[in-house]
Design goal:
The structure holds two protein chains of two kinds. In chain A, helix 1 packs parallel to helix 6, helix 2 packs antiparallel against helix 3 and helix 2 packs across helix 6. In chain A, 78% of the residues lie in helices and 0% in strands. Chain A is built from eight helices and no strands. By secondary structure, chain B is mostly helical. Chain B has a two-stranded antiparallel ribbon. The chains are: A mainly alpha, B mainly alpha. At the A-B interface, helix 8 of A face helix 6 of B.
């Protein structure tokens, strides 16, 4: 029999999935799968064409290749396909891989990793993860253009490549039976996880704003310059 | 002379006065807060005080609440401090930029001096070989000099227009920076308001508690009130520095505006002198002096520099009249050159004075920023000592 807790949890899960964040998350999951599929298909086609072309070239240069040649070609094709299918799937991101991955890839990989952790996390954290995924998606284009040696880049990497996985893994290490118990009268581990994820989400949004500050300012300056030059010097924002 | 041209009035470039130190006591209240804001802040403050008084003075929750006070306004201070650090390199940058304008002006002056009719002796005297045999025409030779100089002058003038654009761009950046600074000052002001309201509110509560719960009154006075006063001081110091930086940026902007005026006037007087020369040449030697490049420049500058364009348009007729009608056209030309010199001298004096007031401002500002840095370091240290930089903030300004 379903307890009221279960019912509430199911309802919350359902609400989350139909929320805009939840829908955006599933859209991104679909896109990731599609992108991986496209990548692998492209490689398979490329390799097949190459092997066929090689066979034809061998046929022209060396004369008829006979049944053995055909067999060798088929064998090569099978081997190549297997190799591509074996290696083509991108390895599952782990916190260790996140720490060393490319800055431009980091948000996407962290998002994929977080998605994998979903089943192990409590219902209230799901919404936070959706929100976090949105924040990660928003900051991704900026990170792609950022010099990884800058202090800001190091800060972002620490936040989403190190501190975030550490929080989630720390929660996962707590035995499930203790996760709902408040600690010394303070918040329960469940609550702490949700709060922590919220803080990280806010911080990513703030970093996003800070990274964009320079570009925003440059645009505002150019606009103001045009105003001063061609419309005369009024106060800013004045017409 | 009956008619005076616009360029005849000497240009006045006034360097803005240096920015002096703003004392922390005077810094608060410069940015107005509207009453809706203050009411909201007051509500939050009284809520905080009620919560604090309701907690047992020995419990960890009480300590936690007090810790929140030590953390108050940390982000606002850090943000405003970031602004102050950025604008300190601005005056020097502005001075660098104007140095390119400066070299262009100096070059223009050298070229103009070569053409000055005042340095050529009596141009109307007939030219004689060995002082005896009449040979050629001095005046004709003199006007030929314009033809060779014109391309050089037009290059310098278009470089000056580019330099002027740089100055305008600098002013645009300053406007944007000041807008951000104003917003930062608004947030600091709100924090100062909170801190001051907390101060009076807690003082009042402590006095009320003296009779009923002296232990709690003591705890409030020794921890919460102590921290809040320290914080108020930090906020006021940062506010003073920020206000000063705000004013300093205005100084840089005004300098740029004056310099732009100077550059405009120098270009105008130069072009107008060359046009006078064309007319005078026509009148005296009935030689048609063709300065194509200057004419072309004229049209473009008229489009780019509005004021110059206006000046030139209104003047053209006047100069023509003067030069043609004047009994001594060469004097008109000499006066046109005097105008250029006067403008350039005005710019030189202005730059000297402006540099001086800029230097004073930078010195005062650097001192104050150094002072405020001590406070910020202390605040940062306090935040780190509490183990986490991301503390709960009771008073957050969005």
């Amino acid at each position: 029999m379903a307890t009221s807790d279960d019912i509430i949890e199911h309802a919350a899960d359902f609400l989350r999935r139909i929320s805009p964040e939840g829908r955006a998350a599933s859209r991104r999951r679909r896109e990731r799968r599609k992108a991986a599929f496209r990548r692998i298909t492209k490689r398979l086609v490329l390799v097949s064409v190459l092997i066929l072309a090689g066979t034809i070239a061998a046929g022209i240069v060396l004369g008829p290749i006979g049944i053995n040649g055909l067999l060798i070609m088929i064998l090569a094709m099978v081997l190549a396909w297997t190799a591509i299918l074996m290696t083509g799937r991108s390895p599952d991101p782990t916190p260790e891989r996140l720490a060393t991955s490319d800055l431009a890839q980091l948000p996407q990989q962290t998002e994929a990793w977080l998605d994998k952790q979903r089943p192990a996390l409590p219902a209230p954290a799901q919404r936070q993860i959706d929100q976090l995924a949105l924040n990660l998606e928003a900051i991704a284009p900026q990170l792609a253009a950022l010099d990884p040696k800058l202090p800001e880049a190091i800060e972002v990497r620490r936040l989403i490549g190190d501190e975030l996985p550490e929080l989630v893994r720390g929660y996962q290490r707590v035995p499930p039976s203790l996760r709902r118990e408040p600690l010394n009268g303070g918040p329960s581990p469940d609550r702490q996880l949700v709060d922590g994820l919220g803080t990280i989400g806010e911080e990513i949004a703030r970093m996003n704003a800070r990274l964009a500050a320079g570009d925003l300012k440059a645009l505002a300056t150019q606009n103001r310059f045009l105003e001063i030059k061609y419309r005369g010097d009024g106060d800013i924002g004045e017409d | 002379m009956a008619t005076q041209t616009v360029t005849d009035t000497p240009i006045e470039l006034t360097p803005p006065a240096p920015v002096t130190a703003v004392s922390p006591e005077k810094a608060a209240g410069l940015v107005p807060l509207d009453s809706a804001q203050t009411t909201k802040l007051d509500q939050r403050v009284s809520g905080f005080i009620d919560e604090l008084v309701a907690i047992d003075a020995n419990s960890p929750e009480f300590g936690k609440k007090v810790d929140q006070l030590t953390n108050m306004g940390r982000r606002e201070i850090a943000e405003a401090a970031g602004h102050s650090n950025r604008f300190l390199d601005r005056p020097t940058k502005a001075m660098d930029k104007d140095s390119s304008v400066g070299t262009d002006l100096a070059e223009l002056r050298r070229t103009i001096e070569d053409l000055d009719p005042g340095t050529r002796g009596n141009l109307l005297a007939p030219r004689r070989l060995f002082g005896v045999i009449p040979f050629g025409n001095k005046l004709r030779n003199y006007f030929d000099g314009y033809k060779s100089a014109q391309s050089h002058i037009s290059t310098i003038l278009s470089r000056l227009a580019g330099g002027k654009d740089e100055l305008l761009k600098d002013n645009a950046a300053i406007d944007v920076e000041r807008q951000g600074l104003w917003a930062a000052m608004g947030r600091l002001e709100q924090m100062i308001h909170i801190a001051k309201t907390l101060d009076t509110g807690l003082e009042q509560k402590a006095a009320d508690l003296d009779a009923t719960d002296p232990a709690k009154a003591k705890a409030i006075r020794e921890t919460a009130l102590f921290y809040i006063r320290q914080r108020t001081q930090d906020l006021l110091t940062q506010m003073a520095v920020t206000v000063q930086g705000y004013l300093a940026l205005d100084l840089v902007k005004k300098n740029n505006v004056e310099l732009v005026k100077g550059v405009d006037r120098a270009s105008t007087t130069t072009v107008s002198a060359l046009r006078t020369a064309v007319t005078v040449a026509q009148a005296l030697t009935s030689q048609k002096l063709v300065l194509d490049q200057i004419t072309a420049l004229n049209t473009t500058t008229a489009n780019i520099i509005d004021s110059t364009g206006d000046l030139l348009r209104t003047q053209t007729g006047v100069i023509h009249q003067q030069a043609a009608a004047s009994t001594i056209p060469l004097d008109t030309l000499k006066r046109a050159f005097q105008n250029i010199y006067r403008t350039m001298d005005a710019i030189d004096t202005f730059k000297l004075q402006a540099l001086d007031s800029m230097k004073q401002t930078v010195t005062v500002l650097t001192d104050e920023v150094e002072k405020s840095r001590g406070y910020i370091a202390r605040a940062e240290g306090a935040a780190q000592a509490q183990g986490s930089a991301r503390q709960e903030e009771p008073f957050r300004i969005d």
